[in-house]
Design brief:
The complex is a heterodimer. By secondary structure, chain A is mostly helical. Chain A contains 20 helices and 2 strands. In chain B, strands 1-2 form a two-stranded antiparallel sheet. Classes of the chains: A mainly alpha, B mainly alpha. The interface between A and B is medium-sized, with 36 and 31 residues.
Chain lengths: 501, 479
């Protein structure tokens, strides 16, 4: 039941915020804040209670599980389960959700109750994605997140919002439908081999997928996740969606929604089709490296600060793709950590861009400069986040990228070496953020207030967590380790042995 | 006629009696409320009688009618849909100051009886009788608001095409009869399966499918749909899109289940072509529409194509998926046209995209219902349409109908785009004229109808197991 509450609290909280906001708009903010905080507290309790799950052979795979009948006729169950991987991503989700609510306290002034309704429903959908262990249920939550995100962009976004929202929706919807077909086919294969229709994760892991259709089914899953991640060349929706979305929307998109793609790859795409994935790994890793380089180079060329940050996401998530298809413990630990710290650092950057935009009314880099003198607290935060983004040792991103590269180096040394170049480019664009905004000459003569107490609290939470993960990432690694063991990374020693290593 | 047969026919008898009772009441006292109330109570009594008749099912009543679980389920669906149409129409007619409001319910009840006969027919004679009872009542219903030019146009178009369709259907039946000498579905299926049918009966079957294609507005026989959908009063458009099509779908399911061998004949090819064309043309043409009723007309062309995918996939799960899809489609379509009906102005329907602009901020409740039904048509979770689409895709994949599945996927991807266009329009800032619409009070009956539809839409999307169980029982006795 605890797992159900993790989903229900934001779901009901969203509805309550909408209703409460009809009387007084401010009430919506408080109700939303209270419900995400409560859910975060629940998730933290779960983490403290069972920080490390049993390893394979020592006990249950799931620290918590909930199995109900849902549509018995179609072999579909309401099956939620929690392991370390899900837990980490859920804690991240709710942490970011709290920050998003606080960060949009003054930015969103229109249709406040409905805004919080959508925000909390996306959060609920994302938590559902991380918990669902029935593929139909997974798809249900996967699609459930689309409409609220679409509305967040289309109603509260900037100038080109409708175009960006529709583009986002079409990309994710089409790739999602391909996954739907693949899921349906898996169910029928189970019927053919075991005599019953089933969409349960554990059941489908046992299905022996015929070699003739396995690549196609794998692609169905891979495309859905690659679009969400996003992997080059399926990324074109992302810069538009991020740029046009309101701050909280960008934060949710970058910090959380993209992670559902990475999670899907780890949880479903590779374990369901191990052999095909091994054969596919060189290509996927190449796409990952392409993303790292492309994202970094294009980010450098941007003049719109928000668009710049959006492109850095593509680069950072290239590491996720590279790491997942390296499929060894080192790389996957790095992937999990990268997903968490990218959520924090990019989420933080988007909040910062939102704060700048609230003050300056522009996101154009060429009009900024010299803001350090005006707003030193903001400058310091921007400096830390930019350093995190470029992977400075001592901050979380460094550990994550280092782990991914070490893992990838074992299976595909040349690709890992090329990916290293991405880290060099990252220095360039990250320094450009810091340089163009807070240093140099204040040509426009900005006079803006520094961070308020509320904003300082949000930024302090982000920065402290990033520093913590940079100095002592062990708790996260320990929590993720058993979950990764269960995925079977121990058995195939070098999955991507064909990767030119 | 035995007592058991009378019990089996009880639902049809009840609705027929009410259809005859309403004109009597009208001749005594003209009262809109009384007529609508009687029709509503009658339809609900018909639904209650289904429970009564279910004990004896399945039973063959004369060679013409089979009252089995499937027929009773479909009758329940049709009666409830008509009851909802009664609720939605009451407010609509009140607002439009038409004279002769009461006759509407007589025609509606007669059409419902026709649909009831249709879904329980097991013989070409009852098929034709049911279809004609339904269609002839619909001619008048479509043209009911005869003061409007578009309505007259729609009525005439519908009448000419429906009459031509009936002729084609009769000709098909005649060819089959000339070749095989049978009119009962069961005997026909047995004869065809035994290999008795020559090219003449295959041609007869294809002609029947063409007629069915017209009735279901399957491409390439869909041309009448946009104009008729647009011209008819919105609640009647809902009735036309659901009850009239649903009845025909049930008959075609029955006919094809009796003759599994059709897969190797041209009949299968004709159905595949109609399905593919409907899914593609329906969705592509819907992209070009600025009139919401026309848009929904093309969208329902596409949805009938999706339905055919489940029809063409064999097996008991396929019929269940098809029936679930039909239920979801009924609920969704009725609520969409219901909302448009509520928004209608005195001078005509508020069916342009522009008319829906800003609905979120002026009428949030209506906008929520409209959004839910559009998302359900698009197959988004938490709505019945999502479960329905999944079931159809699953059966299509299970039967390895890959071409159809890919076209379905492509079609729903396009579909989402135009459904979202309507959602976006509702989200935009209200246009200047919008505040006037605020003053229109929402009729109680329409509110009840729309609220019920909305609840069902969400309930079937969140917890569809009870409905799936009901359908499983209903189709259990089918061949």
């Amino acid at each position: 039941m605890m797992l159900l509450w993790l989903i229900l609290i934001p779901l009901l909280g969203g509805a309550a915020a909408w209703l409460a906001g009809r009387a007084r708009e401010a009430a919506a903010r408080w109700v939303a804040l209270a419900s995400v905080t409560a859910a975060l507290a629940l998730a933290l309790v779960l983490w403290v209670r069972a920080p490390v799950a049993p390893l394979p052979g020592d006990g249950d795979r799931w620290t918590l599980e909930l199995v109900w009948d849902w549509m018995p006729r179609l072999g579909i169950g309401f099956h939620l389960a929690l392991d370390g991987l899900s837990l980490l991503l859920i804690v991240l989700t709710l942490f970011i959700a709290v920050l998003s609510v606080v960060a949009s306290w003054t930015e969103v002034s229109q249709r406040v109750p409905f805004f919080h309704f959508n925000l909390l429903w996306v959060v609920a959908g994302i938590i559902g994605v991380f918990l669902a262990m029935d593929l139909f249920l997974f798809f249900f939550f996967w699609e459930l997140t689309l409409v609220p995100v679409y509305l967040l962009i289309a109603i509260w976004g900037h100038q080109n919002r409708v175009y960006a929202a529709v583009k986002f929706f079409i990309f994710t919807q089409v790739s999602g439908l391909l996954m739907l077909v693949a899921i349906a086919a898996m169910g029928w294969l189970h019927l053919g081999q075991f005599g019953v229709l089933s969409f349960a994760y554990q059941d489908l892991l046992a299905v022996d997928v015929p070699a003739r259709i396995a690549p196609w089914l794998m692609l169905g899953f891979f495309l859905a996740f690659a679009v969400k991640l996003p992997a080059v060349p399926f990324h074109t929706w992302l810069p538009d969606a991020h740029t046009e979305a309101p701050t909280a929307g960008s934060v949710i998109l970058a910090a959380l929604l993209l992670k559902t793609g990475g999670y899907g790859l780890i949880r479903f795409a590779v374990p369901l089709f191990p052999e095909v994935s091994a054969a596919f790994a060189p290509l996927a890793m190449t796409l990952g490296v392409a993303g790292i380089l492309y994202g970094a180079v294009v980010a450098f060329a941007q003049t719109d600060l928000k668009r710049l940050v959006a492109y850095t996401s593509i680069a950072h998530l290239g590491f996720v793709l590279l790491g997942v298809y390296s499929w060894n413990e080192l790389a996957l630990q790095g992937v999990v950590l990268q997903m968490v710290v990218h959520g924090l650092s990019t989420g933080g950057l988007f909040i910062l861009v939102g704060q700048l935009y609230e003050r300056l009314g522009t996101r154009d880099l060429s009009r900024m400069g010299g803001l350090w003198g005006v707003a030193p607290r903001m400058g310091a935060v921007a400096m830390v986040l930019a350093m995190a983004s470029l992977g400075l040792p001592g901050l979380g991103n460094f550990v994550a990228e280092f782990l991914v590269l070490s893992g990838a180096f074992r299976v595909a040394a040349p690709l890992a070496a090329v990916a290293m170049l991405g880290a060099v480019f990252a220095v360039v664009y990250a320094l450009r953020i810091a340089q163009r905004t807070f240093h140099g000459a204040d040509v426009e003569g900005w006079r803006v207030p520094d961070l308020s107490a509320r904003e300082t609290a949000v930024m302090a939470a982000v920065v402290l967590t990033i520093v913590w993960l940079g100095l002592y990432p062990q708790p996260v690694l320990d929590t993720a380790a058993p979950a990764l063991e269960w995925l079977g990374i121990a058995q195939p020693p070098t999955l991507a042995s064909g990767g030119g290593g | 006629m035995s007592r058991a047969e009378l019990v089996a026919l009880a639902p049809l008898v009840v609705v027929t009696v009410v259809a005859l009772l309403v004109p009597l009441l009208v001749s005594i006292r003209r009262s809109h409320g009384l007529a609508a109330g009687t029709a509503l109570v009658g339809l609900l009594a018909g639904v209650a009688a289904i429970g009564f008749a279910a004990g004896g099912a399945p039973s063959q009543v004369t060679p013409l009618l089979i009252i089995d679980g499937f027929a009773l389920f479909a009758m329940g669906l049709v009666f409830l849909a008509s009851a909802v149409v009664v609720l939605l129409t009451h407010g609509y007619l009140e607002r439009h100051a038409l004279d002769r409001k009461e006759e509407f319910y007589i025609l509606l009840l007669l059409a419902t009886v026709g649909a009831g006969v249709l879904v329980s027919s097991s013989h070409f004679a009852s098929f034709f009788l049911g279809l004609e009872t339904l269609s002839v009542s619909l001619y008048a219903l479509v043209a009911f608001a005869r003061e409007r030019l578009v309505t007259i146009e729609a009525g005439i178009k519908y009448m000419v095409l429906a009459a031509a369709t009936s002729a084609v259907l009769l000709f098909g039946v005649a060819l089959v009869y000339a070749d095989l000498g049978v009119m009962e579905f069961g005997a026909l299926g047995a004869a065809l399966t035994a290999g008795a049918g020559g090219p003449v009966s295959v041609l007869g079957l294809v002609l029947m499918l063409v007629a069915v294609g017209f009735k279901l507005a399957l491409a390439p026989f869909h041309m009448w749909a946009p104009d008729v959908y647009r011209g008819a009063p919105a609640p009647i458009t809902g009735f036309l899109a659901t009850v009239s099509k649903g009845g025909v779908v049930v008959v075609i399911v029955r006919l094809l289940l009796e003759y599994e061998g059709y897969r190797t004949t041209p009949v299968f090819g004709v159905l595949v072509v109609m399905a593919v064309l409907s899914m593609l043309l329906g969705n592509l043409l819907a992209l070009l529409q600025d009139n919401v009723k026309r848009l929904l007309a093309f969208s329902s062309v596409a949805h009938m194509g999706y339905l055919l995918v489940a029809l063409l996939a064999a097996g008991p799960l396929a019929v269940e998926a098809l029936t679930f899809y039909l239920v979801a489609y009924f609920v969704t379509t009725l609520s969409a046209f219901g909302v448009i009906g509520v928004l209608a102005k005195d001078e005509g329907e508020a069916d342009r995209l522009e008319d829906l602009r800003g609905l979120y901020w002026t009428r949030p409740g209506l906008a929520a219902v409209m959004t839910a039904s559009l998302l359900s048509l698009g197959g988004i979770p938490l709505t019945a349409g999502f479960i329905a689409k999944f079931s159809v895709v699953a059966t299509g994949v299970g039967a390895s109908l890959w071409t159809l599945v890919w076209v379905l996927v492509a079609g729903s991807a396009i579909g989402i785009y135009y459904y979202l266009r309507v959602v976006v329009a509702m989200l935009q800032q209200p246009s200047e004229k919008a505040p006037a619409r605020l003053s229109v009070t929402m009729p109680l009956a329409s509110s009840v109808g729309l609220a019920a539809l909305f609840l069902l839409l969400v309930a079937f999307g969140v917890y569809p197991a009870p409905l799936q169980g009901l359908i499983e029982g209903a189709v259990a006795t089918l061949p």
